[in-house]
Design goal:
Elements (H helix, E strand, L loop, with lengths): L1 E9 L4 E9 L19 E5 L8 H5 L2 H4 L6 E4 L16 H16 L10 E6 L1 H12 L5 E5 L12 H4 L2 H8 L12 H10 L6 E7 L5 H13 L4 E6 L5 H14 L12
Parallel strand pairs: 3-4, 3-5, 5-6, 6-7, 7-8
Antiparallel strand pairs: 1-2, 2-4
GO molecular function, one term: acyltransferase activity, transferring groups other than amino-acyl groups
Protein name: Esterase family protein
InterPro entries: AB_hydrolase_fold, Esterase-like, Mycobacterial_A85_antigen
Amino acid sequence: MALLQVNYYSQTLGMDRVMNVILPELSDHNPSWTAADLQDIPVLYLLHGMSGDQAVWTRRTSIERLVRQTPIAIVMPSTDLAWYTNTQYGMNYFDALVDELPKKIATLFPQISKKRDKNFIAGLSMGGYGAFKMAFSNQQFSYAASLSGALIGDPNFPGRDAWQNDAYWQGIFGNLTKFPGSENDIIKLAQQQSFRKQPLPKLYAWIGEQDFLFENNQQTISQIKALGYDVTFETSPGEHDWYYWDKKIERILEWLPINYKKEKRLS
């Protein structure tokens, strides 16, 4: 597998950006692969949480090692602290990621599939929110996964005051009293997608039973299931911590329709 740092210019944000990409390549680690195996390859967009960036998944988990025998690309972008959202201060991070980034990927990596059934998205904490939000907002992704996701549909979501003050949240989402039913309310977005009678993404969510977002996940997933989504919801002992996310990212790989191959002992 190749691990690439890609510096590119975002016309939407008007600034240089960075993404990390894990890309399958022909090598003696996978002697059975052919050039044909590395065309139209599936892709998983992997989103970071509030304290992370485009490099955090490779620094704190085994993602590169886990996929080195599975022909799948991993794209890891950054939203800074903007919650995968078009902010109130004029920085359209959501548009940059959901509209502009896939076009950039298609240009830079033509071997990565543009087909919906081969495009997946996942994230942790803030990135879990972003993954569901992006999957509900368009038809690009056929599978979406959340690990310890901040699946917010209420301005008084758990951890709000501990993470940042009201000025920060208003800069991201605007008037918090108007958050329910807005373009940032993932329950509202899920409703709108289901009402349009479009193909719905399959969803996976895991939350640790000691996580401060546990009740939030239970409530939100129940509402999403009631809308007709195919949701795999799993819980187990665990906290809001990389120790668990490192383990659960492999569970996501097993859940995706990619013929995931567990690692053999390779030098």
